[in-house]
Amino acid sequence: MPPEADRQLLLRLHGQLAAALERQDWEDMAGIDLAIRDCLQALVGRIPGSDEVRHARRQLQQLHGQARAACADECERLRRVLLTHLEYAEGRSAYTRVDLFQGGR
């Protein structure tokens, strides 16, 4: 693939990732992440591209880092939500224990 085509692919992936990140579309980001992997694996076997290709790759890498951080933040948010639900379950469990101690009254 010519260097310009590589650069265009990297820029297209950058645009897709930026849009998914802005929408916080985690499922779309997963698919884009796979496309990035495939693209980078394809680039490995080629002769180093132009400065423009390297620059586009660095820009994508930087945005990809931001996306990974946003995904980690979302995972933490979901972890807190699930823990809250567990705490509610503990409350229900406490009612059951109290009922048992009071003989079901």
List keywords for this structure.
105 residues; mainly alpha
Task: Explain what this protein looks like in three dimensions.
By secondary structure, the protein is an all-alpha fold. The chain has a domain at 3-74. 87% of the residues lie in helices and 0% in strands. The chain is built from three helices and no strands. It has helices at residues 3-23, 26-44, 51-101. Helix 1 (3-23) runs antiparallel to helix 2. The radius of gyration is 23 Å and the shape is rod-shaped. It starts with a helix and ends with a helix.
Short description:
By secondary structure, the protein is an all-alpha fold. It is 87% helix and 0% strand. The chain is rod-shaped.
The largest sheet is: none
Helix-strand makeup class: mainly alpha
The proportion of residues in beta strands is under 5%
How much helicity do the residues have?
Answer: over 70%
Uncertain regions spanning at least 5 consecutive residues: none
> Terminal Cα separation, in Å?
77 Å
User: If helices are DSSP runs of H or I spanning 4 or more residues, what is the number of helices?
Assistant: 3
Radius of gyration: 23 Å
Write the H/E string, N to C.
HHH
Task: Please specify the SSE layout and strand pairing.
Blueprint: H1 3-23, H2 26-44, H3 51-101
Helix pairs in contact: 1-2, 1-3
